[in-house]
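User: Could you check the structure of this?
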Amino acid sequence: MSKIRLSRRDALTVAGLAVAGAGMAAGKASAQTAGNPFHHARTVEPGNYPPGAPGEDYSPVITPNGATLPYKVAGGVKVFHLIAEEVQHEFAPGLKATCWGFNGRVHGPTIEAVEGDRVRIYVTNRLRAPTSIHWHGLILPSGMDGVGGLSQPLIQPGETFRYEFPLVQHGTHMYHSHHDEMTQMALGMMGMFIIHPRRPKRRVDRDFAILLSTWKVRPGARRPDPNEMTDFNILTFNARAFPGTEPMVVRQNQRVRMRVANLSAMDHHPFHLHGHTFQVVGTDGGEIPETARWPEATILIPVGSARTIEFVADNPGDWAVHCHMTHHVMNQMGHDLENMVGVDQSAFSGLVGDLVPGYMAMDGNDMAAHGKHVEMGHMRIPDNAIPMVGAQGPFDHIGMGGMFTLLKVRPGITSYEDPGWYQAPEDTTARLAGADEIERDGINT
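Assistant: Sure, the predicted structure tokens are below.
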């Protein structure tokens, strides 16, 4: 038999692997002997817990442009009722569509409960098509998972199904149709499902729930197109596009939580907050241990995922909150246009105007001017359509739309109503530079 000779490096590697293997085995044995009952994100075992009460056991979330689903308690169980139905929905002033949602809303109302609660959810189908509801990210019995045809029969039109299960975790979750998803989710059948911890380690002052989604609504059309795969032109926070998004108002130095979930059809979204940085404290899989959290100013939210962020709103102002994909802050934009950016169209426009009365060329220098021209009445757009970007701001036209909203941080406020535009101290606002300043500082313009 030949001898095997090990170098010092090889010997150290083998020894390290042996130690690691022994440690893994010991850890596994320790977990087994401890009888750890938890599975993945499970944080409590089913038991006889009193129903968690808002204002006592948790601070309710705020769903901008949305609502929370009411419940009643029957025999210690929280009872909810979701009604799947056709809804006339407004994405922004001037743009409405016939969508599918729940309880007269798109997206559906936020379901809110507490870890350890037992919930009973009735789902009534008033659609013309069968459906089923999946509780996205929840640990529950297989028969309650809501996958039509797999874990349950389809809910036929006119039928009401009953789901019941204990909540054995806390975190940011979702619910959505799980039958013909391409059609039903594209038409709006989704909502947030928030489960609070029974004994929270910390509380926040403002807790916002935001659901990201994408749609295809052609100018002049009255229904979203569920067949679209790539060219989505309405991108929303809680089914609203700017300038139809409701601002999030907080008092300076309050602790803020934002729960951001993404049920877009095809797009991930880099969620960006101005004026502050935040810690990523949770995913749809559960809370991130304190030692594993990390700071960000932008967090990528993949399709079918949720991220929870927290920060102290210590910087007063009107701060942009938006997806950082530039085409995701546009409304009803198309790409089947000739590229005229930077082209002087003045002579061309006059010639076409002789042939087509009322013709007006798109501004070749500033696409954001589209919204300004529409607002001023200079440019007509199809019925049931809105400008590609923007609305009037305190200084000028805001050249963004779609997945864009505002965080309004104010000192000393006693109401969370929209406080209007921020009045910044004069010496802290960008302004036109004076000729003397430019000369003094040696700037060559």
